[in-house]
Amino acid sequence: MMWARESFGPEVVWAIEDCRHLSARLERDLMGFGQSVVRVPPKLMAQTRASARTRGKSDPIDALAVARGFLREPDLPVASHDEVSRELKLLVDRREVLVAQRTATINRLLWRVHELDPDHAPKARSLDLAKHRRILGDWLATVPGLVAELARDELADIIRLTETINALTKRIGQRVRHVAPVLLALPGCGELTAAKLVGETAGVTRFKSAAAFARHAGVAPVPVWSGNTAGRVRMTRSGNRQLNAALHRIAVTQIRLNGLGQVYYRKRLADSDSTTEALRCLKRRLARVVFGHLQTDEQNRQQPCQPAAA
Q1: CB burial of residue 147 (10 Å; 0-12, 13-18, 19+)
Q2: Rounded to an integer, what distance in angstroms lies between the CA atom of residue 83 and that of residue 262?
Q3: C-alpha–C-alpha distance, residues 237 and 248, integer Å
């Protein structure tokens, strides 16, 4: 900090490549000193480096590319650290890891049971229920051999993982009901989806507009026209895919429900859109709605309602 102040003065903007699992600690330290930090997307840095006259890759070359990327794009997001969204993201990520582990363990267990006796193979998704796990466990206890022993161990792992997953799900639900009640009121948005949206957004105040949020979520259309094809667009392949998936779940659910989402989707189909195009338009519309709900929840957290005077 002394070097930066002596070299550049007190007003300094730090441009950092947005590798948050590595750069988060540096961002916090700089912000603790009252510094302004801007995040440069790795893709922008790589494109800037590739277009430069300097050949190769090194830390100084990357640092120069980050600086040039920041100067080229003046509206890059400013770093901010929202503990509410960060803790939700940590919980949701942990739950998803455990769900993946449980799925892999269930698949191995099914192979073992099929080897022992295909007639005792449980039905699809039935091992999520304690009743079916108990029935399978009682049968495995009567079967001798190493395969049955491994199957019993894997069943115990599934029981342990399920208990942890259920506890995390309950904890996530309690938190998201407290921090995002307005978002939860959106049709098709359950507790896990709302938690995913809050966690991946990482602070809605860092987006200057709903359009910027939609672009970050990968639902803003990309122009692909020239000459006689004016106005043609396609779906983007960039953006935060976790946010995109959450918006997709809400959109698919709203299409099944009677409501504004279904009405809008059918209107797009009546206007000669394909099902893919209509879904894309609905997701873009939902991004605007979700952005507004996130803003409202953020404002309510910052300025809680005061009780009326008696």
Answers
A1: middle
A2: 35
A3: 14
Long-range pairs for 203-206 at CB < 8 Å and ≥24 separation? 203/80, 203/81, 203/82, 203/85, 203/298, 204/291, 204/294, 204/295, 204/298, 205/80, 205/298, 206/77, 206/78, 206/79, 206/80
Q: For 75-102, what is the mean pLDDT?
A: 90
Are the beta carbons of 36 and 12 closer than 8 angstroms? Answer: yes
pLDDT tens string 15-68: 998 887 788 888 888 888 888 888 888 888 888 888 888 888 888 888 899 989
- Tokens for 266, please give them: 């059918």
How far is it, in rounded angstroms, from Cα 164 to Cα 162? 5
Domain boundaries, the chain: 2-72, 83-179, 181-302
User: For 252-265, b where at least 16 C-beta lie within 10 A, e where not — what string?
Assistant: ebbbeeeeebbebb
Give pLDDT tens digits for 238-281: 788 999 999 999 999 999 998 899 999 999 999 988 899 899 99
Q: What is the pLDDT of residues 105-121, one digit of tens each?
A: 999 999 999 999 999 88
Which residues are CB-neighbours of 20 under 8 A, at least 6 positions away? none
Closest CA to 117 of 142, 90, 85: 142
Structure tokens at 135: 């029935």
CA atoms within 13 A on the CB side of 170: 6
Asked which of 21-25, 200-204, 304-308 is least confident by mean pLDDT, the reply is 304-308
Residues 197, 203, 208: CA angle, nearest 5 degrees? 105
pTM higher than 0.90 for the full model? no
Long-range contacts of 170-177 (CB under 8 A, 24+ apart): 171/91, 172/88, 172/91, 172/92, 172/95, 175/87, 175/88, 175/91, 176/88
Measured in whole angstroms, the distance separating CA 215 from the mean position of its chain's CA atoms is 14
